[in-house]
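Handout, section B. The chain below has 253 residues.
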Amino acid sequence: MKSSRLLFLPLFFCLLATGAYAQDEPAVSVRGQVTDTSGRLVLYPATIRNKNTGAKAFSDNGGYYRINARTGDEILISYVGYVSDSFRVKQASGTETHNIRLRMREAFLPGVEVSGKWNPYQLDSIQRYEEFRPFLEAPTTDLIDKSNKRYEGGFGITFSPFTRGSRREKDLRKFKKLYDEHERQAYVDYRYSKSFVSRVTGLNGDSLVRFTQKYTPSYEMLRGMNNENLIMWISVRATQWKKNPNVTLKPDE
């Protein structure tokens, strides 16, 4: 009985080692550069996500990225305002290179009168949020370490410049700022589309372009305006424009 146990132990450890080896399969280092379709415009910070493991990374200011993966993992590359792209990892180890060229996303056809539960801007915004959710919901690090018990009362507060100043934190803050700016511009483009302005003013071609360059309400103004007030705001400026394009009305006039 004792001898059979002694024979069993080496076999047991052999199987254990085999299982551990299978679980500890070496990862593939996936690398590359993210640019636009021309290959000349670097996209930074592009988001890179391993859809199988949940690992996340950003491209650097040269468009270069690196993320760990395993054979068969799907890697998703996205950039705000561009159509995302993905690929599956083929190698079992070592380095696998994928240079990604993203094309600019075509804007939706904006309008003012819409039907249904969501307007085109809202549908576009919802889809965009879902695409970037893992990055948007990632917490950014506070400059002050509030986990320290001495934080309460304002005594002995601890600053964390190293963590907040890390590349990942900088990229995350820059990405969230880029996303917010894109959302605001998308709303302006939707509410103040050239087709809408043309219908209100009767302007077309170069005159329409020059008018909208001179007169475009801010994001904050548009959020506070209903369509009737926006039409009035445009009409007043269009009337003045036709009289004398060199005269500029103030935003609140």
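Note. Helices lie at 2-23, 120-136, 161-164, 167-191, 194-201, 205-214, 219-224, 227-243. Compare this with the example in section A.
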